[in-house]
Design a protein that fits this description.
This protein is mostly helical. It has ten helices and no strands. The radius of gyration is 18 Å and the shape is elongated.
């Protein structure tokens, strides 16, 4: 499927490769060739798969990921952001574009907390910019909410640097009926 000129089949195949991750390393030469021959969303999917399969060689796919985050209209933007977060400090070049996306407060809460998680994984210096976003997510919905678990776990990952919104966390966790 890597070399087939059948985009729907290739998209499904690259999704499988992303799920397989390093177990699909033997396919990376064919993936590289296919990635270099393709364009658009298919090329982006290949870059996402490439990064999951062979993270040590992510620099090959990084320009594609960076281009996608600099023009944030891709339906796969959140996958790109998550992938950049997994690259940690090596994705610092993407920080300006990620900050511009963070400034768009019209995005849904899940998108914004995952963006903050990626920003902080790339550079812990982004915590001060992300804390107000996380605080807004946590305080917006006053009902007990399982969707808050992931943002709370993100704050735990940030450690003492997230202490300033501890009172909001205590208020949410202390509500009757919260598991």
């Amino acid at each position: 499927f890597v070399h087939k000129k059948n985009p729907p089949l290739q998209r499904r195949g690259f999704s499988v490769l992303r799920a397989l991750g390093p177990a699909a390393t033997s396919l990376w030469p064919a993936m590289l060739e296919a990635m270099n021959e393709s364009t658009g969303e298919l090329r982006l999917q290949m870059a996402l798969a490439w990064t999951r399969v062979n993270i040590e060689k992510h620099s090959t796919a990084f320009p594609i990921l960076l281009e996608a985050v600099e023009t944030p209209t891709s339906p796969q933007l959140l996958d790109v952001i998550d992938t950049l977060g997994t690259l940690r400090k090596t994705a610092k070049e993407a920080l300006p574009a990620l900050r511009r996306i963070l400034a768009d407060d019209k995005r849904p809460p899940e998108f914004r907390w995952r963006l903050c998680l990626a920003l902080v994984r790339i550079d812990r210096g982004e915590i001060p910019a992300c804390l107000p976003v996380m605080q807004a997510i946590l305080t917006k919905d006053q009902r007990p909410n399982y969707r808050l678990v992931d943002p709370i776990l993100s704050l735990v990952e940030w450690g003492p640097d997230a202490r300033s919104i501890g009172s909001d966390l205590r208020a949410i966790i202390g509500k009757e009926g919260v598991p």
